[in-house]
Amino acid sequence: EKILQDCMKALSSEMVGPLYNHTMDTSAILFLAGIPGLQSSYLFMTISLSVMYTIALVGNTLIITVIWMDSTLQEPMYCFLCVLAAMDIIMISSVVPKMVSIFCSGDSSISFNACFTQMYFVHAATAIETGLLLAMAFDRYVAICKPLHYKRILTPQVTLGMSVIIIIRAVTAMTPLSWMVSHLPFCGSNVVLHSYCEHMAVIKLTCADSMPSSLYSLVGSSIIVGSDVVFIAASYVLILRAVFGLSSRNAQLKALSTCGSHVGVMALFYLPGMVSIYVAWLGQDVVPLHIQVLLADLYLVIPPTLNPIIYGMRSKQIRERTWGLLIRWLFGHCNLGS
């Protein structure tokens, strides 16, 4: 009997060993499942994603170009907006091309390294984005509530320092998470039940205890997003108090319109993102899988599409500079052609 047990252990180790070695090989191929259960809607999703991706690329590129070229747009708000536009391009470009490939051609394969690179960029970009939204809310608070001290408080050095701290915070928070997940042993299925390499979907392929990385993700996201939301809410409460203290009705309506659109974009970023995190942690057996995937997709695709419109085109200065740039570019090409 003991000889039989020894033989079974040896056989088991021979079978499991190669599997672990194979799955830890960085040349391994994973497959993204897309949105399970919604295959019939893939054509509509392909068209919608392509349109939103085009709007996001064109809009955010225009904002970066206009702010970079125009020396009059060097206020802190525009600097934060420029960085936000760059993060939007990185965030949406990390996921949408592969999604379109899955929905349109069925090419769902992704290498092990590409999967973890995508995971890192997605999570780091979202962490940077939430910090930038907080910085922009603080900028509006100073501009509206302390207008006489605006240039003294938000100096170029302070603006640069805030941007650097936001990026360092995101990198510091997300690097350990990516390291923990990439060093887990993977076995069994190589199909990620998601449309991109989302953290909670990837760790389901592991055959080791994934609780440390899952807990780190939950706690880290809750602290970063939770603290940012609290400070953003406090900023807008103080802004609204100052707005309702204005004597001009038109000034009140203009400020409320601007604040309302900003809050709307923030809600579209924060609500699906946080709901997605907590559903994946607590309610994955209650909420259908396709709803979980859609929620995770929404907060990566919709904000980069709307941010150029809400933060950029609603700004009179950026709108005028953008039209001027487009007219010069179009008429310049026409003159060259003639």
UniProtKB/TrEMBL annotation:
GO terms for molecular function: G protein-coupled receptor activity; olfactory receptor activity. Its main location: membrane. One of its GO terms (cellular component) is plasma membrane. Coiled coil: none annotated. Keywords: Cell membrane, G-protein coupled receptor, Membrane, Olfaction, Receptor, Sensory transduction, Transducer, Transmembrane, Transmembrane helix. Signal peptide: none annotated. The keyword Membrane applies. The keyword Kinase does not apply. Belongs to the G-protein coupled receptor 1 family. This is Olfactory receptor. It comes from Propithecus coquereli.
